[in-house]
Write the structure tokens for this entry.
Amino acid sequence: KQEVTQIPAALSVPEGENLVLNCSFTDSAIYNLQWFRQDPGKGLTSLLLIQSSQREQTSGRLNASLDKSSGRSTLYIAASQPGDSATYLCAVEELQAGTALIFGKGTTLSVSS
Amino acid sequence: DAGVIQSPRHEVTEMGQEVTLRCKPISGHNSLFWYRQTMMRGLELLIYFNNNVPIDDSGMPEDRFSAKMPNASFSTLKIQPSEPRDSAVYFCASSFAPDSEAFFGQGTRLTVV
């Protein structure tokens, strides 16, 4: 059974710092890995999707990498801002027919000004 | 498109009452997912529809939970009878599966007293 783990569970950094969030998964038979952002009391917003054939994706100050063979992904946030404070979740879509996204429990990021 | 639309946004009900949550997926998407989010367990997949057909309902907690998708633009999740332990945020998501970005609604916060 696929398990997705995110470490650390919480992270506090000062504004301007570059940071890395980690995600690991146990079964490499995946279509893709997606990173989401969730603000308190809100739904999930898709940030980046990395397909299994890709190594990384970039959007603005965000860069996500995928190493499928080792079951790892990282989300790099450059020059962090207080507005980046949120919970970041990663999820994998398995190749097995009929499976939906399997989520980690998230990393809660706090960026102080 | 307005995105995935869920209603109601908040629901407070007494134990034993029937609760119906509603979801309108993004037009053109072929897959719809219901997730439940709690602090303790994170995001859990309840059920997954593809082309209006339930594919995986192994996450549905027990017989008190049921879900339907009568057409491509509407789904319901029903809890009958409701219990305090059902209190959580319920999310609906849709995508053009497999291997594409998933979009989430804003969620329904359910409180059973």
Observations:
- Residues 47 and 61 of chain B are 10 Å apart (CA to CA).
- Chain B touches chain A at residues 4, 31, 33, 35, 42-43, 45, 48, 50, 55-56, 91, 93, 97-107, 109 (CB under 8 Å).
- Chain B has no helices and eleven strands.
- The longest strand of chain B covers residues 42-50.
